[in-house]
Amino acid sequence: MVKEESRAPEAKVTVPSALKNGSAMVALSSVIWGWGCLVRKQFTKGALYLASEILIIVYMVRSGFYNLSKLITLGDVEQQKVWNEAKSLFEYVDGDRSLTILLYGIVTVAALVLAVLLARMSIKSAYKAEVAFRSGKRVPDFLTEVRDQFDKNLHTTLLSLPILGVLAFTILPLLFMTCMAFTNYSVINNKLVLFDWVGLNNFKRMLDLGGSLGQTFWSVLGWTLAWAVIATFSNYILGVLLSVFINWKEIRAKKFWRFCFVLTVAVPHFVTLMIIRQMLQPTGAVNVLLQSLGWIDAPLPFFTDTTWARVSVILISIWVSVPYVLLQITGILQNIPAELYESARIDGAGPVVTFFKITMPYMLFVTTPYLITSFTGNINNFNTIFLTSQGLPRAVESTAGKTDLLITWLYKLTIDNQYYDIGAVIGIMTFVSLSIVSLLTFHYSGSNKNEEGFR
Amino acid sequence: MSKKVLTLVLAFCLTMSLFAGCGSSAPAEQTQAPAAPAANETAAPAENVEPMAVSLKVWSPSEDQNPDMGAWLNTMCEQFNELHPEWDITFEYGVCTESDAKKLVPQDVDAAADVFIFSSTGMENLNQASCLAELGGKYLETVRNDYPESLVASVTYEDGGVYGVPMTTNTYFMYYDKSVFTEEDVKSLDTMLEKGKVAYPLTNGFYNAAFYIGNGCTFFGEDGTDRASGIQVGGEKGAAVTNALVDLVKNPNFIVAEPDNAISMMREGNCNAYVCGTWQAAQTEEILGENFGVAMLPTFKIDGNDVQMRPFTSSKAIGVKATTAYPEVALNLAMYLGGYESQKYHYETRGYIPCENQLISEVQDDPICRVDSQTIKEIAMPRSCFAEYSYFWTPAESMGTEIRDGAVTHDNAVEKTEAFNVAVNTSGLN
After folding, report:
1. Is domain B54-170+314-374 given the CATH code 3.40.190.10 in the classification?
2. Residues 85-104 of A with CB under 8 A from B
């Protein structure tokens, strides 16, 4: 009986309910963290909370408030120089650098968010301690709670480290880069050292079909989506056909055929793609060979004519990706229950009908998540485009080539030209278009609707 | 109970030892610097007599630090250290090519080198990020006296200040096989194409501008200092060049290839002349041996008239970081690295053409140095450091590629040239 009662306080505690049901001690815990714990004799825990509050306050006073104030204007103090006659040289005092101000500002905002979270935790701990105290149960001391973390609450302990890692090394840098999209950090107009907030200006320019940026963006986006769809499906279908073909009972030496096709995986992508690029140049191996054989007069425009370039890039993608698909699909094929095929054969179905009625539906059902991942990967398929066609052919008036994806265009604009603000916007737009398509597809796919069963 | 106490104490010690790693760490070199000579004890009036421990970060291309190629940077820095007993300098070397300096130094100024080599065309980028220290007083005087005017002009910024110590020139010329072409032949591109194969990097804006500038197109005015006039490659002059190029690429002896491909072709015998700066001179000489010839860029024909091709010229200079901790030492090091001894060693080990007045007169026997001086004096077009130059490269590459691939024909040459003219003056992101 006693155990049932003591289980009750372990139910979900929310901050509003804690503040409502708790005494003044709990309310005070929101301002002085750990107060509620200290009052209930949870000395270590309370001391830890108090220490963290002091640390955060010290940080805010020493640099936090300064960082936040600078964040609004992103700095405007320029470098100062003073002539030193005795040494015959100029002495420089550094001015503001907007990039560091942005970085420190975001870190300070993160610290504030952490402060809010700790305050909430403090209130909840105070409430839990109070409830335990009032119900006459012994208030858990520090060592008991630590032991619990490795026993009953192991899930929170194990998850906390990865979550912290993701927050610190993925979310925070991502936030930093995303903020650049709302500034004019670029080599244009000398905005590399001191830049300003421009709000949604860059986005407006990007989506505006009237300007050169907008036109380039929409055409590159169109090609990126078309490429992703064509590349993904062509790889998939050819991979499926190939593995089904090899898997036929009549084919001998299955392992040998599979080995042959998978051999291309042994050579690193990078090397394969660069060699292919060299081979398909106007003065490359393929053209030289065909010309010396007399089959063609002028070099074939592999990367110099728009349609040729696009088709070449898709074919290269097939060459590079089909082995992976082959590996995946073979495993799934061998998993299809043989009874299905047996009953189909008894009913008199030929290989083509079997393929369309049994193999394909099963395959599609199992590999829909893989297809979505593959589609996502192809939207950002930097290597296959950058290392082969390099985005060419490119018209003289455009900054993006005809085979440029959003990501290769982004690379050119940021690394080569230093237009960082536009690059950040392109990154965000890529993410938006990618997530819309992925979410829609996954929502409507069979895998989502019927996770457990097939058919 | 005592076991628990022991565990807690051990855990505490472990945690404290983790924090020992934090905290400001002065460079280890300073604390381990050997004892300064006795002169240290006497209080000297001016700071540059007091010996002190100095730590300098220096950047240069990797070849300058390669022991197989003479390790120019390391050698010179050690010599500098010996010449100045009043400073005890510890060098930290890093790799950064001259063209990357304009991007890498502003990226993280605090971590950037105190002394680095930069291309004079990146000076505006560096100055906009306030990375370069201006030369004044005795340093400025030395630079003005010891180097030719064109070099000093290349390191002078719009505000009149001189921001670097000139180290070498940066232009390009033609390397040719003497057994195929005579000295008269190499004066005209058309004559050359009748006799042998010529490789030219038409898809590279650095090189294809030579055609346009030759015919009168301007890059920021006649002398490259008028920012407002922008890049003018359009109009009749530009269209005439484009038409001439369209015909040129149809010539089977005219090969469009970058210098690094051209030299392999030369090795195989598929190319008899190509265009490049000094950086491939030694290899070319190795391949051609006695038949090694070097000359200024030739003329080419537009509507039957000979037009002289005009290359860009700029310089490479040694810069000092504005916010360096040791401005005096860094400035002196920069002056030394650009001085007589240093340029001489650079010339001997890497063939960098000297630009110090006294040294220039000593190397006139070398055909490459002669051609370089001649090019700069007679035909080259100074390339200033304006940031607007960055708009030029991508459209120039596209234009060269479209001409090579036949996308530009006589029918659309005028329109394409106008489009080219528009593109080179904007970022393309409006």
Report:
1. yes
2. 85-95, 97
